[in-house]
Amino acid sequence: MTLWDSYLNEQDRAVLARGKFGRRMGFGVKPAILVIDAQKYMVGVAGQDQAWPSSCGEVGRTAVGQISKVVHAAQLAQVPCFFTLFEIDRSGNDMGLYRNKRDLLQSEHWCLTGSVGAELVEQLTPSARDIVFVKKKPSGFHGTPLLGYLNERGIDTVIIVGGATSNCIRATVFDAASYNLRAIVPEEAVFDRIPVSHAISLFDMDRQFADVTSVVEVVQYLSTFKK
C-alpha cells in the first residue's frame, strides 16, 4: 500500500486504471543527486520548532537522515550531487510576487541571506566534486545553471531529495520531466509541513512525471556505480 492509497476512492482507482497511469520509467545510466533546500530553516531544532517559522519539524529531521544515506552512497560512487539553497535578500527585493503570499520574516531562523537558517544542515557535507548554488524560485532549474551542469555531464536521471514535497520538490520534478530527464523521488528522503500535501504531491508525481521509490532501492542503484 502506498502513502496516498487512503486518499483515493474506487472511482479514482478506476480513472487511474483506465488511463494506465503510474507506469515505471526506471533508472537511466547516468545519474545525479539534486538536494533541494536541505537547510536549517526547513528542519528547525528539536524542542524549538516554534522559533523556526518555516520548520517542517520532526518529519524533516528524520528525512535528513535518509537524505544523508543517499548523498553518502552517491559520493562513494562519485555520482555528482547538486545542493540548492533557497535564500531571500534581507530587503525582500528578490522575492517577486511571492512577497504577496508570504510576509518577509525578519528572523535569523528563516532563509534570509547570511542567516543561520539559510545554512545547509550539518548532516550534509558536499564533496569537492559536488556543486552548491542559490536559487530564488521553487524549481531547482528556474534561473539557475543546473540544466547546463547536467547537460555537460550527460546526466539522464535525477534523484531528487529534500523539501518541501509539495513546493520545491514538486516544481523541480516537473521541470526535470519537461527537460526529458528521468525523475526519481525516494519517498523517505523528501518531507513537507503538511501530511496531506506530502501524500498527494507524491501521488501526483508518481502518476505522471516521476518514479516514487524507496531509499533502499536508490542506494542499491547507486552502489552499481562504485569505482
Topology:
Blueprint: H1 10-19, E1 31-36, H2 40-43, H3 58-76, E2 81-86, E3 131-135, H4 146-153, E4 157-163, H5 165-178, E5 182-186, E6 190-191, H6 195-208, E7 211-213, H7 215-223
Parallel strand pairs: 1-2, 1-4, 2-3, 4-5, 4-6, 5-7
Helix pairs in contact: 3-7, 5-6
**Second-tier CATH architecture:** 3-Layer(aba) Sandwich
Counting H and I runs of at least 4 residues, what is the number of helices?
A: 7
The proportion of residues forming helix, as a percent range, comes to 25-40%
Mean pLDDT: 96
What is the CATH class designation? Answer: Alpha Beta
What percent strand?
Answer: 5-15%
Whole-angstrom Rg: 17 Å
Whole-number tally of structural domains: 1
CATH topology: Rossmann fold
Structural class: alpha/beta
Describe this structure in words.
By secondary structure, the chain is α/β, with parallel strands linked by helices. Helices cover 34% and strands 15% of the residues. The protein contains 7 helices and 7 strands. Helix 3 runs parallel beside helix 7 and helix 5 packs parallel to helix 6 (195-208). The chain is globular, with a radius of gyration of 17 Å. The model has no long low-confidence stretch (mean pLDDT 96).
Fill in the keyword field for this structure:
single chain, 227 residues, alpha/beta, Rossmann fold, 7 helices, 7 strands, globular
Explain briefly what this protein structure is.
It contains seven helices and seven strands.
